[in-house]
Amino acid sequence: MRLRKTVLTILSLVVLSLSLAGCGKDQPTLHVYNWGDYIDETILPEFEKETGIKVVYDTYSTNEDMYVKIKSGGSNYDLIFPSEYMVTRMINEGMLQKIDLNKIPNYKNIDPKLMGADYDPGNEYTLPYMWGTLGILYNTTMVDEEIDSWDVLWDPKYAKEILMLDSQRDSIGAALLKLGYSVNTKDPKQLAEAGELLKKQKPLVLAYVVDEGKDKMVAGEAVLALTWSGEAMYAIGENPDLAYAIPKEGTNLWFDVVAIPKGAKNVDAAHKFIDFLNRPEIALRNTEYTGYSTPNLAAWAMLPEEVRNDPAAYPSEDVLANAEVFVSLGETLKEYDRIWTEVKAF
Amino acid sequence: MRRFTLTPYLVWMVLFTVVPMLLVLYYAFSVPTAGGTTWSLENFSRFFEPIYLRVFLRSLSLAVISTAICLLLGYPAAMIMAGSAFKRKNVVMLLFVVPMWMNFLLRTYAWLTILERSGFINSVLAFLNLPRLNILYTDKAVILGMVYNFLPFMVLPIYSVLSKIDKGVVEAAGDLGANPLQVFIKVILPLSMPGVVSGITMVFMPAMTTFVISRLLGGGQFTLIGNLIEQQFLVVGDWGFGSAISVVMIVVILLSMAVMSFFEGPERDVALW
After folding, report:
1. How many whole angstroms from its chain centre is CA A91?
2. Taking the CB of residue B128, how many other CB atoms lie within 10 A of it?
3. Is B169 a residue whose pLDDT tops 80?
4. How many of the other CB atoms lie within 10 Å of CB of A101?
5. Nearest residue, CB atoms, A221 vs list B3, B7, B117
């Protein structure tokens, strides 16, 4: 009996303190949840000053971390930045709410070519924030050939000089592209072939990395690395000997987008913030800070010429025509995981 | 009164230990079907496929090797520290503990730059005209990382037991004609077993389940059981399989603790420190 009373007391204390914490809010607040180091944070106080909305800014390091946090409830984020395959999953699970483009007049600055991709046709839920490709970062002082094909990642000449991504879809994707298959294939035979290819490659691989890969390349610890264009731009900025190539067989086109999760408390402020992000000068500062490619045409026009015309950061339409966006795989993801575990545990 | 003071701890343990454990069990023994979930052993039968057994055996062997190295390095260190001739006990103790004030991830990242091709060790070797050492991204680097990170967990419990051994017992053994080696084998070693056992347990458990060390220092090439579990929850979203592996791990740890307590003897005055 007494136990029950104590439990009730403790619970009511918890509830009381939570509700008290919610008080004293005379200022509207916007909770933003973004990737680490993925925005020029000096724009945040400017937004606060202009709108009087306080911005609470948190970061995550993988789509999966963000997904788990939103899915489990309890968080109160108004704005998130998922990648396209995560958007599909979140839309399917009813975790995103529709955005109102009328409240975001600046969306007109976004390149129409990059709008309405398969993951969100008609842009009902999302607008692109950054985009890029999957390719090969290489050290020009250590290769004496033109890097233009995925085959180079299987060349024994570069044994123990190759960094692959510790990311199932990207590394399996590279193998699928080399074989001439779709990066979204669900065909078990094609997947098995890709798995065999990756096992064959393993003796040549120095390591399977994620974030530390770019630092290794900057330090000259490896010759070739499978990487995303944004990461490559950062690395090239640190070490001019590096270069980035999009292989001729094709590439994966990826997007990180802005979206409003269901349960957001301040939908209005979230729209204001999205519109703010799409202002040309703000988008320009974000792309210059992060090194990632902006989908904002007006911001792109203000970039220095060598960046604007850099085929690595802003590839030609031919390259884009030959690029495929990841689609959420559903149950087939387990098959990808199995193959990836086999490759890494081999 | 006593029951009253216990209540917060009980609530805490039920909320954060018992309930999560039950959830893990629930996910492990159920599979989603079209109309909901059913009880099944499917997740477990999947674990016993060769590919996952290989991961399990690799985790086990790396954990056993690093525990053994920790014991071989840690026991003498603890003995020296506990010895009466040694005056700087507190300083050495501090040196063991101070690195633990720093974040674990940070310390492991530091090894990345120490071991890399143009890193600290290789710069020194190159300066001395010695051949380069390429151990980063091999199993040696993983073991090194484990030993480095977990050594204090071996030294401290052994030290704590050794320093409590009654000096009179040791002297008596000597007076009765035992030579130093006999004193060690017949007196000190048996008396220090509780410390050794808790040291082994405290090194073996984290070594068996780590996923950060194998990913960073092994370059992702040495998938351990911890990596497998992490992947099921964060990447694949297969909570059932992830929970099943966790349950297998819990059983393994319980078994190893049972074996350990058998060696520990009947007194059971385990001192963690």
Report:
1. 17
2. 7
3. yes
4. 16
5. B117
* Torsion, CA B182, CA B184, CA B188, CA B194, rounded to 10: -110
Identify which has the larger pLDDT, B267 or B58.
B58
- Which ipTM score applies to this complex? 0.77
Q: What is the pLDDT of residue A261?
A: 96
Cβ atoms of B251 and B237 within 8 Å: the answer is no
Q: Assess contact for B133 and B121: CB atoms under 8 A.
A: yes
Q: Say yes or no for a CB contact (<8 Å) between B220 and A341.
A: no
CATH number of the domain located at residue range(s) A132-253+323-345 in this protein: 3.40.190.10
Q: Work out the number of other CB atoms within 10 angstroms of the CB of residue B207.
A: 28
The encoded tokens of residue A29 equal 């607040």
Residue in chain B closest to A2 (alpha carbons) equals B4
Q: How close is the nearest chain A Cα to the Cα of B209, in Å?
A: 16
User: Do the Cβ atoms of A210 and A203 come closer than 8 Å?
Assistant: no
DSSP states of A247-258: -TT-EEEEEEEE
Beta bridge partners of A31: A56
B141 CB contacts (<8 Å, ≥6 apart)? Answer: B111, B115, B135, B217, B218
Helical (H) or strand (E) element with A224: strand A224-228
| % of chain B with per-residue pLDDT over 70 | 96
**Are A337 and B231 an interchain contact pair (Cβ–Cβ within 8 Å)?**
yes
- Give the residue extent of every domain in chain A: 21-131+254-315, 132-253+323-345
Least confident of A24-28, B14-18, B200-204: A24-28
What CATH number labels A21-131+254-315?
Answer: 3.40.190.10
How far the first Cα of chain A sits from its last, in Å, is 57
- Please answer yes or no on whether B219 and A10 come within 8 Å at the CB atom: no
Task: Please give the helix or strand (H or E) that residue B58 lies within, else none.
Answer: helix B50-82
Cβ contact A139:A216 at 8 Å:
no
| Dihedral sign (CA A274, A280, A281, A286) | positive
Long-range contacts from B258-262, C-beta under 8 angstroms, 24+ separation: B260/B197, B260/B200, B260/B201, B261/B197
* Rounded average pLDDT over B253-267: 76
Residues of chain A with pLDDT under 70: 1-26
* CATH 1.20.1180.10 is right for the domain spanning B48-264: no
Residues in Cβ contact with B79 at an 8 Å cutoff, skipping those fewer than 6 apart:
B162, B188
Question: Which chain B residues are closer than 8 Å to A2 by Cβ?
Answer: 3-4
Report yes or no: A179 and A197 within 8 Å, Cβ to Cβ.
yes
Residue from A208, A273, A305, A242 nearest A39 by CA? A273
| Chain-centre distance for alpha carbon A303 | 22
- Whether the Cβ atoms of residue A346 and residue A164 lie closer than 8 Å to each other: no
- The C-alpha angle B38, B39, B44, rounded to 5 degrees, equals 125
What does residue B220 show for φ and ψ, rounded to 5 degrees? 70, 5
Residues A303, A316 contacting (CB under 8 angstroms) = no
Task: Grade residue B156 by pLDDT with cuts at 50, 70 and 90.
Answer: very high
Closest among B199, B84, B231 to A334, alpha carbons compared: B231
Least CB–CB distance from A212: residue in B112, B233, B236: B112
Q: Which two tokens stand for residue B121?
A: 């060790």
Question: What's A203's DSSP letter?
Answer: G
Q: Are B197 and B264 in contact (CB under 8 A)?
A: yes
